[in-house]
Amino acid sequence: MAEKNSQENRPKKKFSIKKYIRIDFKTLQGRITIGFLLMGAFAIIMLINSNYSWNNQVNKSKELIALNKNSSRLAAEVQQLVDLTTILSFRYISTEDEFFKNDIENRWFNDIYPKVDELDSLVREFGNEEVITFTEELNAHLPNIKSKQGEAISDLSYEKLNNEEVIDDIMHLTFLINNIKDELANAEQESLQSIKEAESNIPLMLTIEFIIAFIISTIIALYIIRTVLLRIKYLKVNIRELAHGNLPEEMKESEDELNSIIKALNELTTNLKGITRFADEVGKGDFSSNITVFDNQGHLGQSLAEMRNKLQNVAEQDKRRVWFNEGIAQFGDILRKNDDNIEDLSAKLISELVEYTDSIQGSLFIVNKEDEKNVKIVLKGAYAYHRQKFLEKEIAPGQGLVGQCYLEKEYIYLSEIPENYVSIRSGLGQANPTHILISPMKLNEEIFGIIELASFHPYEDYHTEFIEKVGESIASTIQGLQVSLETKKLLEESQMRAEQLQAQEEEMRQNAEELEATQEEMERQSREMGAFNQAVSISTMVAEFDKNGKILEINSQLELQTGWDSEYLIGLDRKKLFLDEEDKDWNQTWTEITDNMSMSKSAKLINKQGQDIPVVAHCMPVSDEHGNAVKIACIFIRKEKF
Length: 642
Prior knowledge:
- This protein has four domains: 189 residues; 61 residues, no CATH class; 149 residues, GAF domain (Beta-Lactamase, 2-Layer Sandwich), CATH 3.30.450; 104 residues, PAS domain (Beta-Lactamase).
- A hairpin with a 5-residue loop joins β12 and β13.
- Strands 1, 2, 3, 4, 5, 6 and 7 form a seven-stranded antiparallel beta sheet that branches. A six-stranded antiparallel beta sheet has the order 9-8-13-12-11-10, sandwiched between helices.
- The radius of gyration is 52 Å and the shape is flat.
- The protein is built from 15 helices and 13 strands.
- The chain is of the alpha+beta class.
């Protein structure tokens, strides 16, 4: 407490300018102060003199340029107004409207003559004799134009307003205006040139003044250098060593003004030695060492500490980037080599994913959408504790975390696993995983499967991003595989049905020949059946409709051509699939077909995308054993495009 009171009772030091500025020749501070004062005085004198000369010339040139621009503007306006009076004269002669006549008078007395007077005043102030001469000639020439306009208006004569003499007057007016503007433009260029000349003289004046100041400053500097050279020589060797990257031994301190520099150099040497050790450790890839250079203070100390942290982050990010890219390439190669069997592909993928992400177990689910009303998420691959697991499991959308992930289309990450969630246990008595990552295999917002991984360590953001990227590639492969299998299946079904139709055609042909040989009455039916067989051989697109126009059946070829699924169309109205171009009521169509036994007409099939397919529809009744029509079969043949 006593020490504190004594500090408070001490007299405060008063501010003294002598502490910062000394004017004498005994100390370095005093000599440098005198030198700077002299150089400052010369600099101020040079600036004041140059600034006065420059401002004087610029102000004078600005005044001339302003007069020039106003004069040019007035000259242009006079020409425009004279041209306007000529136009108004034509309008008056053609319409004899007094408004135009009065407007002409107003333009001359209220606009043209006042502007000419203003122009004359400006050019006289400007003082250019040639411009004054042209302006006086303009004053004398304008009454001639006005007089001839008046004569034409009085006589209502286009000829007088458009004769060669009036045209010459207008051209002479244009000549005078252009000469005025040209002379003003030349005068403006001369003003600008004078500014440039004044500007070019400034460097010469500054050079002369600089040379004088330089000579005086050099004399002062030589004197100061001579007096301090011996003191500086003591520091030169060590500073040169530092400049060359060498670290000298600690220097002995002195009692003069350079002592603070010696202390600073000693401290700098010590800190640079610390930087050297730090650089060696960083070069070896060790970013964990503590930096004590400059006590981690100041710009350099903080920068070095930040550099170590950034280098450590860069090394970690580079390691993660390499891990990410190598993983993408590895799984891309797996997808290319195993794209023909979804079970084998799933087992290979989940085992590699578990090992690559350092997980302990994982499952891969594939979405089964064969029945749109009963979507299933089927387990296709399981891997745990470095072994393949052969499990069977189906999950409905929304069921459990996997089903929830399917509905939400976003990954789920848990660091607290629900009790009894993990169904695969280690036979070695290891603890259960503590982290779960469930990620959808998504492509264009459509979910093709789910990846589920479990681990003892947390999953970082780059793990999640990697799983999502791999999931997208897997989804693309699954989509292609599903399309390929579906296409193959449809082609096999189409081929089988084509063979069946071919066998039926042969059987019908044989029956027709037998019926033709045995019964005259069946000849007509045999010919129609032969036409039907021929239509079937030409086109395999077949559909059947009941008495009310409902779709009963379509064949596989029609499914392929239109994209519709037969189960979806059965029971729907015929207009969902095919439209009669005549747009007849189905009851009328039914009657005409059953009465005439067959009918051919132009129609349009509608594919699943809503696009029209122009066809020729060959329709015939299908009768029961009593000869009553129970349905109508239509064979559709695409129209030729020309």
